[in-house]
Amino acid sequence: MAGIVGTASAAASFASGLFPSHSSKSASFFLPPASGLSSGRKFYGGIGVALNKGRFQFRVSISNVPTEISPAQSQKLAASKESQRPVYPFAAIVGQDEMKLCLLLNVIDPKIGGVMIMGDRGTGKSTTVRSMVDLLPEIKVVSGDAFNSDPEDPEVQGPEVREKLMRGEELSVVFTKINMVDLPLGATEDRVCGTIDIEKALTEGVKAFEPGLLAKANRGILYVDEVNLLDDHLVDVLLDSAASGWNTVEREGISISHPARFILIGSGNPEEGELRPQLLDRFGMHAQVGTVKDAELRVKIVEERARFDRNPKEFRESYKGDQEKLQQQIASARSSLSAVTIDHELRVKISKVCAELNVDGLRGDIVTNRAAKALAALKGKDKVDAEDIATVIPNCLRHRLRKDPLESIDSGLLVIEKFYEVFT
């Protein structure tokens, strides 16, 4: 299998290669009363009932919640997935090492903050992102929860799970693969944030909250293709959720907040428009993708694609071993990430590079440290060295530099030049 972790930027000479839909039910919960309010009504089946002593709670129903599935149902689901549109294997992607490395590092450490992929049309950006689905590891979630709640971390628990814990109920826990959610350009704000379930309101008289794409993407990946063409009002929603990790919905008498922590992945063509600076800064890493110039590689890409189109199942089977090796490597890196260390001297040099490049804020320092540790974990090391930093620092800082309209040199080259100046 071709190397995945190799040169990710102009730092190539300094970096070394490495590799040889469920049934639904409604669930209800109580939202705590807002402070300072002295009166209210309690909703049962859509009917308001006054509460005693001036206190109140809202009873809200959540609809479209996946229930626990039996082994027979899981077999049917597995069979249905096989019959769905096949996904091109990640291990079969030829070239584009920088993009693949950024994606792998974000799966290993989601706190890196996502990746923005910019490049020419037809260079395999969306194909590569969607091929990550097969490599995503499993996580523990509360069974039947609409927000993929973590049974152990209250910061990523939905309101219903928190209510169960307060009552001392035991949570049913299952393992499921990290979810990847596509955010289409034509999506409405209600579909993204969540809204009132009109059908339940009309038929049952219940104020039911129907979770949106942000709830589905919690603890998973949110992918926006052509993100530079996304409507401004949806950009504002993404900015708010990415900044706080929570999504607050105010709709027709319902006020609900739920966790919305996701890996934000965007792709786009710079010729079609620039991305708003506020959103660009929210991406932890930035990968630039160019058209492959080598004739032999181009021929190989065309042949591989033709082979996949001819018989997708056979093609995927031929890369099954490479895919499993990658899965094991990712799982091993995730488990060993907490043990990876970085010397204080290297941290100081990273911050010096950021300061001398006039990078606004400290997000660049934080992301570079996290990405370097994730790369060291992927390589099977327990300590970060300068080589790891050289590989990731252009991707972490190039989109944070102030734009100079008269500057013709690529911002990634500016970063690596400053890196050599500080580290040598």
Distance between the termini: 34 Å
Helical content band: 25-40%
Outline, from the CA principal axes? globular
Total strands: the figure is 15
Strand pairing plus helix content: what structural class? alpha/beta
- Radius of gyration (CA) equals 23 Å
Number of helices: 16
For the largest beta-sheet, the strand count, sense and barrel status come to: 5 strands, parallel
Pick out the low-confidence regions. 5-61, 63-68
Please state roughly what percent of the residues sit in beta strands, choosing from under 5%, 5-15%, 15-25%, 25-35%, 35-45% or over 45%.
Answer: 15-25%
Whole-number mean pLDDT: 79
Order of strands, widest sheet: 8-11-14-5-15
Organism: Sesamum angolense
Function: Involved in chlorophyll biosynthesis. Catalyzes the insertion of magnesium ion into protoporphyrin IX to yield Mg-protoporphyrin IX.
GO molecular function: ATP binding; ATP hydrolysis activity; magnesium chelatase activity
Protein name: Mg-protoporphyrin IX chelatase
Q: What key phrases describe this protein's structure?
A:
424 residues; alpha/beta; 5-stranded parallel sheet; 15 strands; 39% helix
Task: Please outline the helices and strands.
Blueprint: E1 24-31, E2 41-44, E3 47-50, E4 58-66, H1 71-83, H2 97-108, E5 115-119, H3 125-131, E6 138-142, H4 159-166, E7 173-177, E8 180-182, H5 189-193, E9 194-196, H6 198-203, E10 208-211, H7 213-216, E11 221-225, H8 232-244, E12 246-251, E13 254-259, E14 263-268, H9 277-280, E15 285-289, H10 295-310, H11 312-318, H12 320-336, H13 344-356, H14 363-378, H15 386-397, H16 411-423
Parallel strand pairs: 4-10, 5-14, 5-15, 8-11, 11-14
Antiparallel strand pairs: 1-4, 2-3, 6-7, 9-10, 12-13
Helix pairs in contact: 10-11, 12-14, 13-14, 13-16, 14-15, 15-16
